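Predict the 3D structure for this chain.
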Amino acid sequence: MADERTAAVSRETSETEVAVTLDLDGSGESTVETGIGFFDHMLASFAKHGLFDLTVQCDGDLEIDDHHTVEDVAITLGEAFDEALGERRGIVRYADRKVPLDEAVAGVVVDVSGRPLYEFDGAFSQARVGEFTSHMATHFCRSLATNAGLTLHAEVTGENAHHEIEALFKATARALDDATRIDERRGGETPSTKGEL
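Done. Predicted structure below.
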């Protein structure tokens, strides 16, 4: 590929310090340290199944709760996607993926549109998985979509929150991998009748 689709983004507030590197055309390698074991597992899974090379380092105010850490990592990762995509020329743009994990199924439809919107249908069966608050999975997706400029619709069903959340992260990764791929038939043109995204 002529142009590397990579980004390095950092964010520092009174609540967190976050550093993210992203390669959209990677092999799924990751190094993740957020201080929340289950969240680290989800981000590593996101990288593995999206074939993104990803590093995430976050030092957050976990003595309060997990909210700021999850939110700020999602914001920074979204900004990294936006930077790595650049003008979004030649990308597939749309994708639709369903991923099962035992009894749970998550579905994600994405448009790499430049117009942020997030919709979620479903609920998580338990309030927490380890030190991770389950509803933060949807907040992660919303913050990611907002900062990456994605239209993202997600749904989940199941009986086990670990499975439900993991399926959601994997489905989001697979959909983003599909949608951000370069379609050689486009010849580098922007996939929009408007001429830009």
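Residues 8 and 21 are 4 Å apart (CA to CA).
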